């Protein structure tokens, strides 16, 4: 279908499980626990680092600002951005740019016939958690379904052979 609108507004809530108030309390607690650290270090681990740095930049917070010197308005700005970062989409890029996922558990750490971890017996892995780079066009979903079936089947067998009555 041909879209009549050229731009579509989108919004990301990075913490859908928390209310705005709960997120604010969490952030204030992290800042109060580390008053002499830079904001990016005080909030380290709150969310994926590159996204955190992006949000801090969007909130116009200087790199050298410490938690002790942050204002209520700046805290509110961070919370608002994490709960509702808004941006506009106006099209798509070429298929060559359509790769989103990468990384994951190395295939060297997995038994290929069962999808069980070589490091942690009884841990079966599949799909996007694996370091598989499939081309766009159904390869990733095919890989997820196949590895999921193999992992699920073998996990079931593993459980039934290791259970004691």
What would your notes on this structure say?
Helices cover 39% and strands 8% of the residues. By secondary structure, it is mainly alpha-helical. A hairpin with a 4-residue loop joins strand 3 and strand 4. Helix 1 packs across helix 4. The termini are far apart.
Mean pLDDT: 89
Number of helices in the DSSP assignment: 5
Broad structural category: mainly alpha
Helix amount: 25-40%
H and E string: EHHHHEEEH
Gyration radius, in Å: 22 Å
* Spatial order of strands in the largest sheet: 1-2
Query: Strand tally, please?
Result: 4
Separation of the first and last Cα atoms: 59 Å
Provide the low-confidence segments as ranges: none
Largest sheet: 2 strands, antiparallel
Shape: extended
Percentage of residues in DSSP E strands: 5-15%
In terms of topology, how is this protein built?
Layout: E1 8-12, H1 20-33, H2 39-42, H3 49-58, H4 72-84, E2 85-89, E3 110-111, E4 116-117, H5 139-162
Antiparallel strand pairs: 1-2, 3-4
Helix pairs in contact: 1-4
Summarize the structure.
The protein has 165 residues and is mainly α. Helices cover 39% and strands 8% of the residues.
Task: Please give a handful of descriptors for the protein shown.
165 residues, mainly alpha, two-stranded antiparallel ribbon, 4 strands, 39% helix
